[in-house]
Design goal:
Elements: E1 10-14, H1 25-33, E2 45-47, E3 64-66, E4 71-73, H2 79-92, E5 108-113, H3 115-126, E6 133-137, H4 143-146, H5 149-160, E7 165-166, H6 169-178, H7 187-197, E8 198-200, E9 207-209, H8 213-219, H9 229-232, E10 239-242, H10 252-261, E11 266-268, H11 279-282, H12 284-295
Parallel strand pairs: 1-2, 1-5, 5-6, 6-10, 10-11
Antiparallel strand pairs: 3-4, 7-9, 8-9
Length: 316
């Protein structure tokens, strides 16, 4: 049995740039089988597609690609703003938020990867008290300060060169299963990605990536989240930070220093072995285990006698 209170919690999952809501399915399957979450109703595991991704495919604006500078201009580029707004709208639409009563509403835990992790975190910064816990897999943070421009050049280059259109879904599946860049992915995760990220074209004669590589490439050209010192103190919930051991997209040292300076808010967990920035796709087993461990940091999963009516205890 899960502790009283945890069965009332909603887990909101936010995917990374270029992906889709289905990429969380292998992790959610494992979470639902755990003793901690077996009493949580399936409807309380909430996933969604960000704009320009999956079911929210949007081809209305043609990207402007500059191959010389390896930069792309497109509305998707300004993802910090629209992704944060999307998360906030998703939160407001949750049935558990319908009453608007802060003291009696059910706990809400945000779980995000990359772009999704940033959107969850920034939502809590802009609207403190939105979440009762955050578990963030490598939020893309201050890349212009903490990383070389060559990182952006590389990401844009490999994304623009990616194949994106196939005559059949089987052809798309064979491409991803044989493509070297996807070799490290868990096979169930790869299938889940294909299920949501590859869609039938309007003419019904071909299949394409829902998020065109040129649109995805614009994400990497953006100014990433970079919070002022006072903004870093605004979250009112415990925030767990996770990273892959082989990542090139996450400056662990920055987050270790952040957790040292604000230990009541942030906690950095040990790196996930043999994984990159895409750890949630490479190792859903360990990702689920890390989430379960992180949940025990939150009051709703600590056996509180009435966690849904004592949420102030989980806040800072």
């Amino acid at each position: 049995m899960c502790p009283h209170g945890s069965k009332h919690a909603t887990l909101l999952f936010a995917h990374g740039g270029g992906f889709c809501r289905q990429t969380w399915d292998p992790i959610i399957r494992r979470l639902r089988a755990s003793s901690l979450l077996q009493s949580v109703d399936p409807s309380q595991f909430v996933t969604f597609d960000f704009p320009f991704h999956g079911t929210k495919r949007d081809k209305s604006v043609t990207p402007v690609v500059n191959r010389e500078t390896m930069r792309v201009e497109h509305p998707c580029r300004y993802w910090v703003e629209w992704a944060t707004e999307e998360v906030y709208q998703q939160v407001q639409a949750l049935p558990s938020r319908a009453s608007g009563d802060f003291l009696t509403r059910a706990p809400l835990i945000g779980i995000g990867h990359s772009m999704g992790a940033v959107a969850l975190w920034n939502t809590e910064v802009k609207h403190p008290g939105t979440f009762d816990g955050l578990i963030l897999f490598e939020p893309i943070y201050a890349m212009h300060r903490l990383s070389s421009p060559k990182t952006t050049d590389f990401l844009v280059s490999i994304t623009l060169d990616r194949e994106y259109k196939w005559p059949t879904l089987d052809a798309a599946t064979r491409y991803f299963e044989s493509f070297r860049n996807f070799a490290a992915w868990d096979r169930e995760s790869l299938k889940s990605y294909i299920d949501g990220a590859v869609v039938q074209d309007d003419d019904k004669t071909s299949f394409s990536l829902a998020c065109h590589p040129e649109i995805e490439a614009s994400i990497y050209c953006a100014d990433t989240l970079d919070l002022a010192d006072v903004e870093l103190t605004r979250p009112q919930c415990r925030t767990i930070l996770l990273n892959g051991e082989r990542t090139k997209m996450y400056k662990r040292e920055f987050f270790v220093d952040l957790a040292d300076s604000l230990p009541d808010i942030y906690k950095v967990e040990p790196s996930m072995a043999n994984t990159s920035h895409l750890m949630v796709l490479e190792n859903p087993e360990d990702s689920a285990a890390r989430i379960l461990k992180g949940l025990t940091e939150f009051i709703a999963f600590q056996g509180d006698d009435d966690a849904t009516t004592n949420l102030s205890a989980s806040r800072l």
